[in-house]
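Field reference: sequence -> structure
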Amino acid sequence: MFKELFLSSIISMSLSLKTSNDETKPHDYEFMIQTEKKNDNYSYYIKRDWERELGEKYIDNVVKVKHITQKNIYTGLDFINKESKNIDYLTLNAGYKFDIGVQSGLSIKTGKNHSVLASISYDKDISGKNMEYFISSSLKSNLSNDHIYNMNVDVKKWLTENINLFVSAKYIYFDKKDDFQFKIGAGFKI
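Structure field:
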């Protein structure tokens, strides 16, 4: 069972370097490694970034896990810990997945200010001969002071059956803070 979880997983990496906006600070960098797997019953996405911005070092972690039963009931969790943007939360998620890609349910946000959030999301995965497009959008809110919004767009060009080049754009909004990332990199399938 454990071996099957990781077979056909995709491991991706990217590296970026740039001149610091402050000439007295060392150059900025960001190294990202992630692993992901999607199929009809479960999916996971695990990502870690090591970065330096204006001389400060940060480690960012993102973990998303989801299981969908044969009756279209989903359960999962989202763990986001972005030191670089002071965004940190864990949600436990459950609900129903409609055949059109829309999912609706409840999320429990844990931490200092735990709350129950209504959740709605949409996922669309389009695969061609050697191209793959994935769009995901998620909104969680208790309609008063807790709002979480995630948007992901991934495009993969498969060079071989196991090697791809990717472009990824991700946006997270949480507690009046937001983070946008744009990455270009390479990945391979185990």
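Note: Residues 2-6 form the longest helix (5 residues).
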